[in-house]
Amino acid sequence: KFKLSISMSLDGYVSGPDQSEKDGLGIGGEQLHEWVVPLRAFRESHGEEGGEVNASTPIAEGVLGNVGATIMGRNMFGGGPGAWGDDPWTGWWGDNPPFHNSVFVLTHHAREPLEMQGGTTFYFVTDGIESALEQARAAAGDKDVSVGGGAGAAQQRLAAGLLDEILVSV
Fold this sequence. Notes:
Blueprint: E1 2-7, H1 40-45, H2 57-64, E2 67-73, H3 74-77, E3 102-106, E4 114-115, E5 121-125, H4 129-140, E6 144-147, H5 151-159, E7 165-169
C-alpha cells in the first residue's frame, strides 16, 4: 500500500511558518506532533527507550509499522531551495535517521544517494512522482510505502490518485 500519514492543525496547516534548520517544521510546527512524540512506538522507532502507551498507540503503530520504503518532498528532507551546494544538507535526523529503509526524496536538483547509519539511504528523484513511486514500490518488496510530506508533495500524490490510504491526525 501507498499510505500517507500527516498531522494537521484544525485550521488546515501541516507545518508552521518560517521553516529553517532551527525549526524544521517551521515555528510552532512541532506542536502538530505532540500526540505521537511521547508514545513508546514513536520513541522506539527513533532508537529511544520508554514512552507512553495510550489510545493513540495503535494509530502510531499502524503508521510506523510494515514500512519498506519512504517517499518525501524536498522540504521534508530539508536543506533549503535550489542546488545542494558544496556542503549539502544531510537531513533533520542526524547520522541515524529513524526510517531504516530506502527514502526517495522528490527534488529538482540531482544528487548522489546519501547512505546513513541504521539502514537509511536517501535517493534523490528528479524525474517525478511516478518514478519515485515505482522505485519505492520495488524497494519496499511486500511491505508498505510510507508517503510523507510536505504538503505540496502530498497534494501531488493525491491529485494523481496514487494513494491507497490517507490518515490525517488533527
